[in-house]
Amino acid sequence: MLKRDHQLVLPTQARAPGFRVELRGTTFRLVATGAWTVAEATQLDTALKRLRVPIPPTADFTGEMDIAGIAEIDTAGALLLQRTAAAWEKSGLRTRYAGATEAFRILIEEVQRKGRAERPKIENRGALQFFTEDMAKTLTGVWHDAVQLTGFLGEVTAAFIRLFRQPWRFRTTSFIHHLDHAGFRAVPIIALICFLIGAVVMQQGVVQLKPFGAEPFAVNMVAILALREVGILLTAIMVAGRSGSAFTAEIGSMKMREEIDAMRTLGIDPMDTLVLPRILALVVALPLLTFIGDLMGLAGGGLMAFAVLGLDTSNYIDKLRDVIDFQHFMAGMIKAPFAAVIIGLVGCLEGLKVEGSAESLGTHVTSAVVKAIFLVIILDAVFAMFLSGIGV
Amino acid sequence: MIVENGREVLIRVRGLAKSFGSHQIWDGLNLDVYRGEILAIVGGSGQGKSVLMRVITGLVVPDAGDVGLFGQNTKTLSAQDRLEIERRWGILFQDGALFSSLTVLQNIQVPMREHLELPQAMMDDLAFLKLSMVGLPPDAAYKFPSELSGGMRKRAGLARALALDPEIVFLDEPTAGLDPIGATDFDHLIRKLQQTLGLTVYMVTHDLDTIFTVCDRVAVLADKKIVRTGSPTELQRHPNHPWIKEYFCGERARAASPGERPSIPA
Predict the structure, then answer these.
(1) What residues of B are in contact with residue A41 (Cβ under 8 Å)?
(2) Hey, which of A48, A179, B81, B236 would disulfide with A281, CB 3.0 to 4.6 Å?
(3) B10 contacts on A by Cβ (under 8 Å)
(4) Is B8 inside any structural domain?
(5) pLDDT digit string (tens) for B92-117?
(6) Residue in A with minimal Cα distance to B141
(7) Which residues from B are below 8 Å from A117, CB to CB?
(8) Within a domain: residue B13?
């Protein structure tokens, strides 16, 4: 903001911006007063828009912007003056400024110069076009993801097979570290969740089966459900949220800071050091966690069975023994390593896809969790069809 | 309004003290910033140059001392007055600090939307004008910050800082991370904008070229206070302090000082 006199503090009254248009001889004059700053711009804008552009009766009429009365001006004020002057010029009045101080003149000239820049046109797309384009982009994106994930699976498999020929490439420390983080430290939360869900399913089962007098069968339901579906699904979803996202965040932040490029130039293969230990650790940890999840699901069911059915522990275990087959247990357990591979692959791949910015890291972490959980559920559905197909 | 030596004091800092844990960074720091000048704050790392800017702008609360802005003590300001003062300054953070979910144009319009009720056409006019004033091409307007280079992000950040035509602009290391050509351009830009808009510029910098080409006055942070202020050439001629001597009379300073090469006409 430029002031005519810096020592002068304007009273509110004098700040009120204003202008009037008068005709003196052959000169149309816009006499501006007060403060022409951004705070007053709205008021000035409406008033100036209402102002009719004078039409010169003959060619020798001129225009003048008399700004001697302006006490304060900034770019907004200069812009408004400039806009008015341009409109006058357009109607055939040669317009000049009067009463500007040196500083005012510099500002107005700068605004005049810079205001001429051509603005880019933004193309307005219709809703239908927008929708179609978006849809097409998403669908090709899904296909692209599938191709990438398959390619990555191939790379990881190749690196894994290479381990047999060159076992010294295996990073034991890193493997143990991830086993600890993704496996051991996940035990309490997974145990708690499975216990609670087992209990809830048992309680609901009893409530729903009671009208048919079939409440003892709630135990069958909980036992089979816990072993075949609930144990593995809850564990896999929890691990996807807990460890899959952590993999993406760790690898992604390394990618962001060019650490992975540095590794490559030092002759270290990120596949060996970052990806394989994580995926292998998950492949070991997830079946173990699933086993704990199964047990805790059954335990939760047992607690509820005691509370609502009055079954004590030994009766409950006897009943379980009648109901459960080894097949049921294996039908759940067989899915664990596959789910582990999916979660690990998606987590590591999303991490490697991170680009320079923190926003990119955020989006990839989110998409790692979403994709991993989605794929785990697809996997579960495929297994369900397959297992019922072969009669297990 | 405080007037000293015939010049209006816009920022007056008195007796500032601040510690982080057991580490005291200032003890009794005083500083005046006059209207219309370009002031550079220099000092070794860890002397709290950026923290001082954050204290003045109210982002960090000092342990002791007063900060006066436009003649008002910030301690006794009401929320309304504080808002009024915030409209009168613009801040350029190190990497621009543009809002990543908004386009450059929307970024520049944020302060206008927040503080004023301007018609959209007027805001567009003003934003394009600011964009052009900081030397960005008009097609940068619809880009997102992530699509811009570091230098362009700084310029866009400066455009946002200038959105409401502030009286003071704070610049945090304006030329850091720019190549020499980009940095020189930015120096010229600061000088030019200061002259056209009548700005007071407070900048934290390390860049000796910037100091010698655009700064009117330098304040040196050392020994937990501002040890000296003066024009760059003055400090170079009479350092009177070991750190200033090292900084202004070192190899790099000799290369940057105006005696060694043609200075930029103001």
Answers:
(1) 116, 118, 122
(2) A179
(3) none
(4) no
(5) 998 888 998 899 999 999 988 888 88
(6) A120
(7) 128, 132, 137-138
(8) no
CB contact under 8 A, A1 and B122: no
pLDDT tens digits along B179-208: 888 888 889 888 888 888 888 999 998 888
Residue pLDDT, tens place only, B217-244:
999 988 888 888 888 888 888 888 888 8
- Per the CB < 8 Å rule, is B119 touching A42? yes
State yes or no: pLDDT of A306 exceeds 90: yes
CA dist A88 and A385 (Å) reads: 79
Mapping DSSP onto H, E and C, the string for A135-165 reads: HHHHHHHHHHHHHHHHHHHHHHHHHHHHHHH
Contact A79 B129 (CB under 8 A): yes
For the cut 70, the answer to whether the pLDDT of residue A13 exceeds it is no
Output the domain CATH number for residue B246.
3.40.50.300
Gap between the terminal Cα atoms of chain A: 81
Using CA coordinates, name the residue in chain B closest to A6. Answer: B8
pTM, 2 dp: 0.76
Q: What domains sit in chain A, N to C, each tagged with a CATH number?
A: 2-114 (3.30.750.24), 169-389 (no CATH)
A359 → closest Cβ in B100, B132, B196: B100
Give domain status of residue B18, yes or no. Answer: no
State how many domains chain B has: 1
Cα separation, A318 vs A74, in Å, equals: 87
Number of H helices, E strands in chain B: 10, 11
